[in-house]
Amino acid sequence: MWQTLIVALIVAAALLHFSTKYLPAGVRRAIVRGLVRCGLDEAKMSTFFKVAPGCGSGCGSCGSCDSPPPPSATPPVDGSSSKRVILMQVQR
Fold first, then answer.
1. 30/57 Cα distance (integer angstroms)
2. C-alpha angle with apex 29: 31 to 52, nearest 5 degrees?
3. How far apart are CA 31 and CA 45, in angstroms?
4. Where exactly are the structural domains of the chain?
5. 3-state class (DSSP) for residue 64
6. 82: left (phi over 0), alpha (psi -120 to 50) or beta
7. Residue 4 confidence (pLDDT)
8. Among 48, 18, 17, 11, which Cα is nearest to 32's?
9. For residue 24, how far is the Cα from the chain centroid?
Protein backbone atom coordinates (compact mmCIF):
# COMPACT_ATOMS: atom_id res chain seq x y z
CA MET A 1 0.00 0.00 0.00
CA TRP A 2 2.70 2.48 1.02
CA GLN A 3 4.86 1.51 -1.92
CA THR A 4 2.03 2.29 -4.32
CA LEU A 5 1.49 5.73 -2.78
CA ILE A 6 5.21 6.53 -2.88
CA VAL A 7 5.48 5.45 -6.51
CA ALA A 8 2.40 7.53 -7.39
CA LEU A 9 3.95 10.59 -5.71
CA ILE A 10 7.24 10.08 -7.57
CA VAL A 11 5.44 9.72 -10.90
CA ALA A 12 3.33 12.84 -10.19
CA ALA A 13 6.46 14.83 -9.29
CA ALA A 14 8.21 13.64 -12.48
CA LEU A 15 5.18 14.63 -14.58
CA LEU A 16 5.07 18.05 -12.93
CA HIS A 17 8.79 18.58 -13.55
CA PHE A 18 8.43 17.49 -17.18
CA SER A 19 5.47 19.80 -17.76
CA THR A 20 7.26 22.83 -16.32
CA LYS A 21 10.55 22.32 -18.12
CA TYR A 22 10.31 20.28 -21.32
CA LEU A 23 6.90 21.08 -22.81
CA PRO A 24 6.77 23.68 -25.62
CA ALA A 25 6.02 27.24 -24.53
CA GLY A 26 2.62 27.25 -26.25
CA VAL A 27 1.48 24.21 -24.31
CA ARG A 28 2.75 25.68 -21.04
CA ARG A 29 0.84 28.90 -21.77
CA ALA A 30 -2.31 26.88 -22.39
CA ILE A 31 -1.83 25.07 -19.08
CA VAL A 32 -1.39 28.40 -17.28
CA ARG A 33 -4.55 29.80 -18.92
CA GLY A 34 -6.50 26.73 -17.82
CA LEU A 35 -5.22 26.98 -14.26
CA VAL A 36 -6.02 30.72 -14.14
CA ARG A 37 -9.58 29.97 -15.27
CA CYS A 38 -9.83 27.54 -12.33
CA GLY A 39 -9.03 30.39 -9.95
CA LEU A 40 -5.27 30.15 -9.38
CA ASP A 41 -2.98 33.19 -9.37
CA GLU A 42 -1.67 33.99 -12.86
CA ALA A 43 1.61 35.52 -11.69
CA LYS A 44 2.54 32.48 -9.59
CA MET A 45 1.54 29.97 -12.25
CA SER A 46 3.40 31.80 -15.01
CA THR A 47 6.52 31.92 -12.83
CA PHE A 48 6.18 28.22 -12.00
CA PHE A 49 5.72 27.22 -15.65
CA LYS A 50 8.38 29.73 -16.81
CA VAL A 51 6.21 31.75 -19.23
CA ALA A 52 5.55 35.48 -19.34
CA PRO A 53 2.38 36.43 -17.46
CA GLY A 54 -0.43 37.43 -19.79
CA CYS A 55 1.39 36.10 -22.83
CA GLY A 56 -1.00 34.95 -25.51
CA SER A 57 -3.97 36.91 -24.22
CA GLY A 58 -3.45 39.74 -26.70
CA CYS A 59 -2.62 42.37 -24.10
CA GLY A 60 0.85 43.02 -25.53
CA SER A 61 2.71 42.71 -22.24
CA CYS A 62 4.87 39.74 -23.23
CA GLY A 63 6.95 41.74 -25.71
CA SER A 64 6.86 39.11 -28.43
CA CYS A 65 5.81 41.72 -30.99
CA ASP A 66 8.80 43.91 -30.15
CA SER A 67 11.38 41.35 -31.23
CA PRO A 68 13.67 42.44 -34.09
CA PRO A 69 13.04 40.89 -37.51
CA PRO A 70 15.30 38.01 -38.54
CA PRO A 71 18.30 38.89 -40.73
CA SER A 72 17.62 38.73 -44.44
CA ALA A 73 19.04 35.90 -46.50
CA THR A 74 20.02 38.09 -49.46
CA PRO A 75 23.77 38.27 -50.20
CA PRO A 76 25.59 41.61 -49.87
CA VAL A 77 25.65 43.84 -52.95
CA ASP A 78 29.44 44.26 -53.10
CA GLY A 79 29.99 40.54 -53.79
CA SER A 80 31.63 39.71 -50.48
CA SER A 81 29.99 36.97 -48.51
CA SER A 82 29.57 36.85 -44.76
CA LYS A 83 29.49 33.05 -44.94
CA ARG A 84 32.71 31.11 -45.20
CA VAL A 85 32.97 28.18 -47.56
CA ILE A 86 35.30 25.31 -46.80
CA LEU A 87 36.49 23.62 -49.95
CA MET A 88 37.11 19.92 -49.61
CA GLN A 89 39.04 17.68 -51.98
CA VAL A 90 37.99 14.07 -52.27
CA GLN A 91 40.90 11.64 -52.42
CA ARG A 92 40.21 8.35 -54.19
1. 10
2. 135
3. 9
4. 2-54
5. helix
6. alpha
7. 95
8. 48
9. 5
Q: How confident is the model at residue 19 (pLDDT cuts 50, 70, 90)?
A: confident
How confident is the model over 30-77, as pLDDT tens digits? Answer: 988 998 999 888 888 888 888 887 655 555 555 555 556 566 655 555
Name the pTM for this structure: 0.50
The rounded Cα 81 to chain-centroid distance in angstroms is 33
Task: Classify the C-alpha dihedral 27-28-30-31 as positive or negative.
Answer: positive
Secondary structure of residue 67 in the 3-state scheme: coil
Whole-angstrom distance, CA of residue 27 vs CA of residue 13 = 18
Integer Cα distance of 92 and 89 in angstroms: 10
